[in-house]
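User: My collaborator sent over this chain with a note saying "see what the structure looks like." That's all I know about it. Can you take a look?
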Amino acid sequence: MAATVDSGGRSRNLVLAAMIFAVAMTFIDQTIVSIAVPQIQDELDLSSTGVQWAVNAYLLTLAAFFAYGGRLADTVGHRRVVVAGVVVFAAASLLCGLTPKGSLAQAWIVVFRAVQGVGGAIMFPAALGIVVQTFALRERGKALALFFGVAGGLTAVGPILGGYLTEWTWRAIFWVNIPVAVIALILIALSRPVTEHRPAPMDYRGLALIVAGVALSVFGFQQAQIWHWSNPATGLCVAAGLALLVVFHRVEARTASPLIRVGIFRNRAFLVENLVLGITMLVFVPFFFFASEYAQIGLGKSASGAGLYLLDFFIGFVIASQIGGRLLDRGGARRPVVLGCVLGAVGFYLLAGKVTDLDFGAQFWYIVLAGAGMGMMLTPASTDAVNRASRLSYGEATGITQTVRNYAASLGLAVLGTVSVARFESRVRTSLAAQGVPAGRASAQAHDIAQSRQSTSGDAVIPHFIRADFAYATRTIFFVMAGIMAVAAIVAYFGLQRGLQAEEAVAEPSGAGPAARAPGDGAPRE
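Assistant: Without extra context I'll predict from the sequence alone. Here is the result:
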């Protein structure tokens, strides 16, 4: 039986456009704020910790509330939750842009950045659930390739747009979300997407456990570069968070109406796709951060120039995501996921070999190749994972996959960030010693330079040896990324089965909690 829902005769493409505009804000905000950090810190007189949390608070709450957003969409209604998420996100964006100067500034912007994350977390699973229910199983690969391709490409738009908007005022990077939200709400009203949902009580005990577990462990990952891994507080936060997630799993297995039916992980394809997504997200989001730094420090580009460097990555990403979606529809997820991981591994490996040349022209095709690998595997892996859920649990499945993705991205940023700092500091120390700087002073200066690297940009103020040393640190990171993508390819090759998923396989996994309703059993529609 087809898993599609008739949207009242209205164009499914209009529904798709509405959902793309809805989630566009969340993708843009993953990268746009980092470009304006110096201006925000200067005008609001924020501490270094405060400005870091102006960036991290959004990512933290986004990761912590995805599971809640997915469950809420499946029980309250996808369209209703998308609208609520858009409104919350837009209102929080407005208030971020209105941050007052003075003693309230730091608390104000951090709080409303966190509220933005909550809005995005409830919006995204609901939006993806609408797209999945609107398109039949055999058409989802193509539809979601466009969804992820366009929306994902907006991640690269963030730095470019942010670079230009901050020349006017940094506040505009938040206000730009308002017209996008208005367009999204208008398109939702016009398309009126129809989906089915299943009313059920909310598992607030499970919600408290997963929010605390994800938030505490992600907080530990994020603080690792400030506290360092040698600080017991870092390990304690991560360990406590992981312990709470173990408790969450055990509690959910015994709960009548759980936040997440953990039995879905007994579906091998769902488990493997989430493993692949988790492994590759150690690379995907961190790449934006490290590539942006390399472009500004190693290549001496401006903030907007760094955005163009990332745009080349998305040239490959957007094109290959369309190919990956069509391969999924024609032959299943295994081929595009494995091929995409292999291409990504090769692309990052070749790119790593060129970054120390400090020549952007020599890197172009390797950046495109790395992006193509990511684009080819990301859409099929995400789509195939969600397809394994019941049509009444698409929001929940999306919440799970997005939690896995964001959790892994935080881990990747923390671990790779530590490696990058250590490698950069070592190279700078060696360079300073070679210039005759005494060992003790060389170590101190290298440490200060490595820790302040984010604020160092502009070709005129960066000595050549600093640019070269940072490029060597970046080379190490890209080699590690190539290895991670190779591991993902191996997991996908041996873990995924060949062939198309059968329509009748789209059902609740056995033992996944209370009995799910079968299609057509009276589940409410919006």
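A starting point for your reply to your collaborator: The mean pLDDT is 81.
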